[in-house]
Design brief:
DHquinase_II, 5 helices, DHquinase_II_sf, lyase, binds 1,3,4-trihydroxy-5-OXO-cyclohexanecarboxylic acid, Rossmann fold, aromatic amino acid biosynthesis, 5 strands, globular
Length: 146
């Protein structure tokens, strides 16, 4: 199973950025833990973070035929990007949307996502653990949909 972990804008600032909302762990630490977890599940995990919408789109396009499942935290693009939605539809790679914070307990503008209805599932509010659960779910999804 080949899983792509995508993190959108400002997630490179984890650990520094609003720690009361997003926690104190850096993105590098988080990704390392997820890599170890993926290895324990015998899964190939690649990771890409960008603050640029087009770079995320390019990475999704390049995943065609290369990646079985995408775990994505689109950051603020969740609430703005029709293009990200269209890219995921274009490659038709199943995905899970993850948010560290509980977006439903925050500002009203965070409560709409352009991705949720096309995702296999959505996890929010569980912090870094949410990514783990998404990887676990991605593995069982790909095993039951080979
Ligand atoms: C986020 C929630 C978004 O609303 C916000 O713009 C982010 C992070 C989260 O992980 O909780 O950048 O996706």
């Amino acid at each position: 199973t080949r899983i792509l972990l995508l993190n959108g804008p400002n997630l490179n600032m984890l650990g520094v950025r609003e720690p009361s909302v997003y926690g104190s762990q850096s993105l590098a630490e988080l990704v390392q833990q997820l890599q170890d977890y993926a290895t324990s599940l015998n899964v190939e995990l690649s990771h890409f973070q960008s603050n640029a919408e087009h770079e995320l789109l390019d990475r999704i396009h390049q995943s065609l035929g290369q990646i079985d499942f995408i775990v994505i935290n689109p950051g603020a693009f969740t609430h703005t990007s029709v293009a990200l939605r269209d890219a995921l539809l274009a490659v038709a790679i199943p995905c899970i949307e993850v948010h560290l914070s509980n977006v439903h307990a925050r500002e009203p503008f965070r409560q709409h996502s352009y991705l949720s209805d096309i995702a296999k599932g959505v996890i929010c509010g569980l912090g870094p653990q949410g990514y783990r659960f998404a990887i676990e779910a991605a593995v069982s999804f790909t095993q039951s949909n080979p």
